[in-house]
Amino acid sequence: EKNSVSVDLPGGMTVLVSKGKDKDGKYSLEATVDKLELKGTSDKNNGSGTLEGEKTDKSKVKLTIADDLSQTKFEKGKEDGKTLVSKKVPLKDQSSPEENFNEKGETSEKTIVTANGTRLEYPDIKTRWTGKA
Q: 48-57, 69-78, 114-123: lowest mean pLDDT where?
């Protein structure tokens, strides 16, 4: 699309940023993640901001891009828009930490995939990350 600029993000993601502002003075953002189209707006034209989308099962997806583009946070939630299902934060070194949550919103699994594709799991997460036994 000629009216937008492509910006590369950590984790191999790309966001399209409109060249001009909309009627509200915001830049339009678009990205496709896991075959899902996300849309949002931003005050900046560098690609930072928040994009949201909805999967076919009505669950919500949100991509938050840091102001300096150094970090992205990809969250999947239930259809209520409040209960988190998973969170992935790709880093500049190409590693990708991911957390999955249970029905109560507590961390049920935490993994990290390193730049070379090695998958590491944190087994004893409840005590290690929340301090609860």
A: 114-123
Q: In what order do the strands lie in the sheet with 60-65?
A: 4-8, 14-21, 27-33, 36-42, 49-54, 60-65, 72-77, 84-88, 96-101, 107-113, 119-122
Q: Which residue has the higher pLDDT, 7 or 122?
A: 7
CATH number reported for the structural domain that contains residue 88 in this entry = 2.40.128.160
Q: Are 50 and 44 in contact (CB under 8 A)?
A: no
**Confidence check: pLDDT of 9 > 90:** no
Residue 66 has pLDDT above 50, yes or no: yes
Spatial separation of the C-alpha atoms in residues 133 and 131, rounded to whole Å:
7
Two tokens, residue 1: 């699309």
Q: How many domains does the chain have?
A: 1
In this prediction the pTM is 0.78
Q: Which domain holds residue 14?
A: 4-130
